[in-house]
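User: Please write out a complete single-protein record containing the residue sequence and its fold in token form, without commentary.

AI:
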Amino acid sequence: MQEKQLQGKQHTAQEAMLSLLDAVDYQTQGQLLLANLHALGGGLKEVQLERWDAPGALVRIKLDPTLSIVENANRLFQKAKNQHIALEKQEEYLAHLQNQLDQLKLQKENLTQLERLR
């Protein structure tokens, strides 16, 4: 039963990790805003900008119209930092769960060997 619980937690953590990896790349959005600063005016709710690493691919960036483009970019950079921290914590948690599963498997193997000796 403990093994199934750990596996369930591991599955949930892996899904959360994939969700973080698939999340919007805030760093790139902030960089795109700053790179196109000259072409953007204030009061915008969103913009679509072309990625430099994927020509033709547009990125939709939601903006706070009460902030300047630079302030919006800084807000996105802060989100990127938080996203990076969340990713690191999720990786640590997954490693911890894997360690627990490995220990449980070892304990089961030891019990199986003891039963064989009887």
User: Anything to note?
Assistant: Helices lie at 2-22, 26-35, 69-117.
